[in-house]
Every structure is written in structure tokens, then in C-alpha cells.
Amino acid sequence: MPTKDFPKWDGQPYYPISRFYKNRFGEKVYKITVSAAQTCPNREKNKGVGCIFCDELGSAGSHLIKHHPLDEQILINREKLRKRFRVNKFLVYFQPFTNTYRRLEQFKADVGLALSNDGVVGVAFGTRPDCLPDEIFPYLKHINNTHYISVELGVQSFANEDLKFLNRGHSSEESIDAILKLHHEAGVNIGLHLIFGLPNEQDRDIIKTAKIVNDLPVDNVKLHNLHVLANTPLHDLYKANKFSPLELDEYARRVVLFLTHLSPGIAVQRLAAVAPRWDELVAPEWTKHRLKPTQFIIKHLKERELFQGISVAENSRVSS
Ligand code: SF4
In CATH, what number is assigned to the domain containing residue 85? Predict the structure, then answer.
């Protein structure tokens, strides 16, 4: 397909979530990250040891404010974003741990509080595919009638052997069931967190992941490179030379492969992980940087005149 015919997203070769927010809300929207949940089932079942990559903060960057009450966290972060980016609309993002694990009533209260704040147009929250109790679906559907609500599912991989390596404690089948149920029973926006750079990962696995995502009712994806944080089980594997994280150029190559096979209608929240605490990042060093990996991947796409979904379009043209 000639590149001039391909969808353009503010000049970017992929569909960034910022473009999705602008379409949906008519202006820029930023996420206010907050910390409310304190644990997850994986840690509880395994005596404190959860997924092999996860640090003590539950894969979160909001450690500086987690001891503040929720309303203060919202206020502090909202005002920072207002000053820095001159934005007026926000989503409150409940990031760390498993927000729907054994705290449904508290979760509902937290969502209600978040939505009552000035400028807040919706919420997003992180959870696991195996932590969506039946009673949550009517509640999410109810909220979704009046507000934007996005569920960010920690899927990480659709290959059960990868999930086992990561010690996720759930299966690919459970992820697919959760996505379908969220779509059919609640109608909410669905985002998936995915990890690349797993041992033995082949190009065909990456293409397969894109195809699975394309076939599911998924609205956005957040991509992470598997990186090593101090005092995690992955750190032990790294020290024993049993795991090496990808260098940026190889990670970029895999992300480009994924994006070219990803449907152009699925927004992308993030192209690579960013380590919020440099003191606990062991490797790779490039994960420190917020912008450099994203810019590198975009350059890689542009230099090759590639776009998100270009292979999907080519394949469908061949088969039509
Ligand atoms: S990534 Fe999520 S599920 Fe895994 S140990 Fe961390 S908080 Fe628990």
C-alpha cells in the first residue's frame, strides 16, 4: 500500500493514545496516576513472590505519593499536570497492584471519589485477567453509561510457556475470557499490557500476538521490554546469566514487527517500559530514558516507510 494512502496520526507512523483521547474528548487528556491497592493474588499465594519482573511497589511509579490519601494524590498530581502541560481534562489511573482483588467495595468508593474531582472525565485501572469477579461487570457497565472507563489488563503474553516463565499465575485462556467478558458484559474500553523480550521469543510469536490482539475487542495496548529490577526473581536469573534483556535496536525491531501487524484501529499507549526509579534498574540501561526508546522506534518505522497495520492491510489485499 502506498504510504500516502495510509492513515496518519498527527504525522506519527502509529496510532498514539493521545490521538485517541483527542478524538474521544475533543482535547488533550492526561492520566493522573494514583496508588490505591496494596497487593495482588500472585504475591499472596506465593508468600510475597509474584511475577518475576515485579518490584516491591507492584510495578508502579507512584511510590512518592502512595502514602497520601487518594484525594490528595489526585490533587497533587492533577495540579502538576495542569502546570506542566496546560491540560484541563484528566483520567485517574489506578496503577499498582491488582485493583479489583478482594477490595471491590473500596474500589467502587475510590472510583466514585476519582470521578467527583474537577476535570476528571474518566478512570483507568490495572488488574489481572483472573481478578474480575462476576459482580464487577454490572458495576463497570453502570459507570460506563456516564463516564469513560478503561480496564488495563496485565496479559503480558498469549503463550502459556511465557506466562509460566514470568510466574504470572494465570493462563492465556483466562486472558481471552476476561477480554471477551469485559467487552460483552460491560462494554468498557480495554487495554492490554504486553511484554516483549522474553527468552526464546521468535518473530512468528510476535506476529501471532498481533493477530490474536486484532481478533479480540481490544482498544489499546501498552508495550514493555522485559527489564531487570533489583531484588526481583528476574534479577537472580540475570546474575546467574540465565536471562539477558534486549538491547534497544533489537527491541525496536521486534516492536516494529508487532506494530506493522497490529490493526491500525488499536491505539498504542506506550512503546517501551520506563524505569521510574533509576536506583533499582539493573538492566538494560536504556530503560532509564522516557523519550529515547520511543524516538528510536519511530525513527526505525519512518526510515523504512512502515506504519502500524501496514502488513494487516497488505495481507487483506492479498486475500481479497
Ligand atoms: S505484576 Fe501485578 S500481579 Fe504480578 S506480582 Fe506485580 S502486582 Fe502482582
Answer: 3.20.20.70
Render pLDDT for 233-244 as a digit per residue (tens, 0 to 9): 999 999 999 999
The closest residue, in CA terms, to atom 2 on ligand 1 is 97
For residue 8, pLDDT beyond 90: no
Q: Is the pLDDT of residue 318 over 50?
A: yes
Judging by beta carbons within 10 Å of its beta carbon (0-12, 13-18, 19+), is residue 23 exposed, middle or buried?
A: exposed
Quick: pLDDT tens for 87-121.
Answer: 999 999 999 999 999 889 999 999 999 999 999 99
Written as one letter, the residue type at 85 is F
Number of separate domains in the chain: 1
Please, which residues have CB within 8 angstroms of residue 17's CB and are 6 or more apart in sequence?
220, 267, 268, 269
Per-residue b or e along 258-267, where b marks 16 or more CB atoms closer than 10 Å to that residue's CB: bbbbbbbebb
- Domain of residue 10 covers 3-319
| CB of 154 sitting under 6 A from ligand 1 | yes
Nearest ligand 1 atom to alpha carbon 96: 7
pTM of the full predicted structure? 0.94
Atom number, ligand 1, closest to the C-alpha of residue 53: 1
